């Protein structure tokens, strides 16, 4: 073949390859089919990037539910409610720290039990005699 004919054939081949590549998003079929042909199809929505992650419940919401349940059972006054709310909030924060720290499961369980006992003792300090009996009964029920 003559060099000029070979040159034109190579250019024609290059142009046609570039055109085919452009149809499929310049990076093969995967990108082209997801973006070039709608991109919002069901298969692209099932990929791990598009899954909804569960949102963490704020500590204040958890504490308010716990205190509401205790208040219903034990009949706190306003000051006791504030004090118990602060104790439980602090306890939940420390619980999160324990769960995130490195270490064995036994250590974490031991730390959680110690935290639970400390929290119970702090709450008991704010209660009167009748409330302490009710709280102790609730604690026993919770353990079972």
In words, what does this structure look like?
With 144 residues, this protein is mainly alpha-helical. It has 2 domains: 3-50, no CATH class; 59-143, no CATH class. Helices cover 75% and strands 0% of the residues.
Q: Quick summary of this structure?
A:
This protein has helices at 3-23, 29-36, 42-45, 59-74, 78-100, 105-125, 129-143.
The structure class reads mainly alpha
Number of strands: 0
Q: What is the CA-atom radius of gyration, in angstroms?
A: 32 Å
**Distance separating the two termini:** 91 Å
Describe the sheet with the most strands: none
Secondary-structure element sequence?
HHHHHHH
* Discrete helix count: 7
| Percentage of residues assigned to helices | over 70%
Mean pLDDT: 79
pLDDT < 50 stretches: none
Query: Hey, roughly how much beta strand do the residues contain?
Result: under 5%
Shape: rod-shaped
Query: What is the number of independent domains?
Result: 2
Question: What topology emerges from the helices and strands here?
Answer:
Blueprint: H1 3-23, H2 29-36, H3 42-45, H4 59-74, H5 78-100, H6 105-125, H7 129-143
Keywords summarizing the entry:
2 domains, mainly alpha, 144 residues
